[in-house]
Automatic annotation (TrEMBL):
The keyword Transmembrane does not apply. Belongs to the peptidase M16 family. The lineage of its organism: Eukaryota, Metazoa, Chordata, Craniata, Vertebrata. InterPro entries: Metalloenz_LuxS/M16, Pept_M16_N, Pept_M16_Zn_BS, Peptidase_M16, Peptidase_M16_C. GO terms for cellular component: mitochondrion. This is Insulin degrading enzyme. It comes from the Eukaryota. Keywords: Hydrolase, Metal-binding, Metalloprotease, Protease, Zinc. It comes from Homo sapiens (Human). Residues 238-416 form the Peptidase M16 C-terminal domain. One of its GO terms (biological process) is proteolysis. Residues 74-212 form the Peptidase M16 N-terminal domain. PROSITE patterns: INSULINASE (PS00143).
Length: 447
């Protein structure tokens, strides 16, 4: 029998890594590539700040502009005169960790219901029909602390699509007649996830930490959590959905990215016209300072029978939130060394014994307040018989890195490799690009 293995441990991040690598923070005005001297309001009271000097690859021919609207929405505009598709995305910095305890999956359900009619465009399929008629598509996803909505459309029809899209955040209907169908859609999504090994491992992680921590919540939801249980307890899910949307869908927790053929000035005017009326409720950004894995939840070994024919060893280290160190990126530094493939590396040693095929290491997002460091190993048949030996080699290698301390040349190597990757990165497709950037914008401190 083949197993997926998960080992949860709690070694402290060595203080030498935190102090040396965390000391390279830039001046606040340079974060995210925005420079204070470029800020201007363009004589428009709906714009709080604007930045035109965006750090980009010399090979990138697109033009960029950053905005902060007066209502707190952060915006990145991308002008690309050659694009066939225009695209936009809006990320709300709220996700399943903020679900009420008695309705698991409510934020995900909100994502589904939001697309189905607005006061300005009440027809249920108006948005999807407009996109399909103009070579477009849309999607959305909900994670622990993000709900991300995005679309693409033929470049001539950006304004029409963006107008329909913006209405979801101004005047959604949440029509009662759509509720049952969307509950079934969420339930089908859950049933699909059950057959996914990565999703099953993630559910195990959440189930083996602190059960009182929001990280343990069942984020997808299903028919039981969104219909059966609420009916048993006399809960009106639509009313709870309206409360959730009213409580959390605030402009100060939103970020928007728009890409089109239009000039930056035209894109600016379009975004201001469509999004400046989104209400700012000054909702505090949820934080989760306590880690879901404390001492009593660690040093555990779990064996999982997989769906697919795979053999993996998955080691999880709880670590503090490293977001404030993102310029020096200590998680990347450690991942670079632990996942190195050259002579003398952990991988080369384990491959020489015939135990592993691949090994990768790196930080994994948790939520605002906690993170994880992961080592994921693809095992050979022989390696499955030497799991404890592989773990021993891991800790011997980590101890070696701890004893040597941070090395300036390694940091410089990481920096140089990232600089090359940034300069020669492939041009990303509009829909994925806007979705990703909208999620990243929340961390831009200089807006």
């Amino acid at each position: 029998m083949r197993y997926r293995l998960a080992w949860l441990l709690h070694p402290a991040l060595p203080s030498t890594f935190r102090s040396v690598l965390g000391a390279r923070l830039p001046p606040p005005e340079r974060l995210c590539g925005f420079q204070k001297k470029t800020y201007s309001k363009m004589n428009n009271p709906a714009i709080k700040r604007i930045g035109n000097h965006i750090t980009k690859s010399p090979e990138d021919k697109r033009e960029y502009r950053g905005l902060e609207l007066a209502n707190g929405i952060k915006v990145l505009l991308i002008s690309d005169p050659t694009t066939d598709k225009s695209s936009a995305a809006l990320d709300v910095h709220i996700g399943s960790l903020s679900d009420p305890p008695n309705i698991a999956g409510l934020s995900h359900f909100c994502e589904h219901m939001l697309f189905l009619g607005t006061k300005k465009y009440p027809k249920e399929n108006e948005y999807s029909q407009f996109l399909s008629e103009h070579a477009g598509s849309s999607n959305a996803f909900t994670s622990g602390e993000h709900t991300n909505y995005y679309f693409d459309v033929s470049h001539e029809h950006l304004e029409g699509a963006l107008d329909r899209f913006a209405q979801f955040f101004l005047c959604p209907l949440f029509d009662e007649s759509c509720k049952d169908r969307e509950v079934n859609a969420v339930d089908s999504e859950h049933e699909k996830n059950v057959m996914n090994d990565a999703w099953r491992l993630f559910q195990l992680e959440k189930a083996t930490g602190n059960p009182k921590h929001p990280f343990s919540k069942f984020g997808t939801g299903n028919k039981y959590t969104l219909e059966t249980r609420p009916n048993q307890e006399g809960i009106d899910v639509r009313q709870e959905l309206l409360k959730f949307h009213s409580a959390y869908y605030s402009s100060n927790l939103m970020a928007v990215c728009v890409l089109g053929r239009e000039s930056l000035d035209d894109l600016t005017n379009l975004v201001v016209k469509l999004f400046s009326e989104v209400e700012n409720k000054n909702v505090p950004l949820p934080e989760f300072p306590e880690h879901p894995f404390q001492e009593e939840h660690l040093k555990q070994l779990y064996k999982i029978v997989p769906i697919k024919d795979i053999r993996n060893l998955y080691v999880t280290f709880p670590i503090p939130d490293l977001q404030k160190y993102y310029k020096s990126n200590p998680g990347h530094y450690l991942g670079h060394l632990i996942g190195h493939e050259g002579p003398g590396s952990l991988l080369s040693e384990l491959k020489s014994k015939g135990w592993v095929n691949t090994l990768v290491g790196g930080q994994k997002e948790g939520a605002r307040g906690f993170m994880f460091f992961i080592i994921n190993v693809d095992l050979t048949e022989e390696g499955l018989l030497h799991v404890e030996d592989i773990i021993l080699h891991m800790f011997q290698y980590i101890q070696k890195l701890r004893a040597e301390g941070p090395q300036e040349w390694v940091f410089q190597e990481c920096k140089d490799l990232n600089a090359v990757a940034f300069r020669f990165k492939d041009k990303e497709r509009p829909r994925g690009y806007t979705s990703k950037i909208a999620g990243i914008l929340h961390g831009c401190h200089s807006f």
